[in-house]
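Task 17 of the worksheet. Students: predict the tertiary structure of the chain below and write it out as structure tokens. Keep your answer in the requested format; marks are given for formatting as well as content.
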Amino acid sequence: MYTKRAKELINADTQLKDIKFLGWVRSKRDSKNFTFLEVNDGSCLKNLQVIADESIETYENMKDINTGASVEITGELVESPGKGQKWELKADSVKMIGFADPESYPLQKKRHSDEFLRQISHLRTRTNKFGAISRIRSEASFAVHQFFRERGFLYVHTPIITGSDCEGAGQMFRVTTLDDTKKPAADDFFGKAAYLTVSGQLNVENYACSLVRVYTFGPTFRAENSNTPRHAAEFWMIEPEVAFADIFDNMTLAEEFVKYLISFLLENCRADLELFFNFVDKWLEERLAHVLESEFVRLEYREAVKILEQSGENFEYPVSFGTDLQTEHERYLTEKHFKKPVFVYNYPKTIKPFYMRQNDDGETVAAMDLLLPHVGELIGGSQREERLDVLESAIKNMGLSIDEYWWYAELRKYGTVPHSGFGLGFERLLMFVTGVSNIRDVIPFARTPKNLDF
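Model answer:
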């Protein structure tokens, strides 16, 4: 007797005997002398059909098995006479592992709304859609590491708790052991104010300035009260950093990375992606193929503003030099004007963080954003400021303390080099690849304003 998963059994080449199969009942149908079970173990989208007849010793127990119950089935894989599957499992024994109350089990065999399923995030991965999202997320995580490993990058584990504000925006979660927040930070656990990190970038830059090619991939946190389908308080970021690289090298790496991930998922998650092609977004497959076939546009911010000003569009947010691009601007550039992905670079320094390299024009910095059709910004990055005096001046102008960034500044004192990197929001990528419109549905347990369940 050996255990097999549904994915292996459904794709088997030949009949198999003495199989043990474990999973959860999706549906049950009783006939006069038979019971049919649709069982899923999460290994693939399809259920395995199990047929149990009254000759098996445990058939009397079948009456207690309902939708949602966990079962252990032993038997033989045989050709199925029915439509929709090549094989079915003819049971020699069916054992219930865990009972499911048929009166209260919330996942009956019908279509449930995403809003309802968010209320039962601990169970929603048993549905086709969220099981598929989970498998795609897992495969995408593997692809991230494989991409960088193939290119000689080293994986760096950057800290979750930090004393530095990477973005300079102040939207950070305070971490404290003090029961009275009015006490001085010197009395706290670390002897100073501590926060959950909004980015691993500053730390990973340290390693790039020794090891050349590095990346970090982990959770980040932002105390931004944005209760929108595109924002979450906790989300995962992929942040590569490369020494001896400028803003154009950065854009080349970003384009290669995005195309690699899409290609990998199309090849390795085809069955799961078909669900989203057929039921979520009918244009999704075409859009993914278009990204792979496109040469991404490289567009200076000044030119982007000029295009938007001359577009004739009635934007909700007016655009002019010095304003940040909104989603409606990003989607116009990618969906109507260029009809392909667009890098916008050389943004005004007044709307970007202190660490971005200042250009010779005195007005802009070597920042870049990758904009994709349908979702807008997917990647934000920059060439970093490698000149000590310019960096220190930028820190002061942002109203930040140089003392807090002494270690970051020292990189510019001892063998400074040009270097660049970017951050890709992992959930934003998953939204683009699946066509799912709400970030709460591509992360296992969403953390959003006024929501800390599960």
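Marker's comment: The radius of gyration is 26 Å. The CA atoms of residues 368 and 379 lie 8 Å apart.
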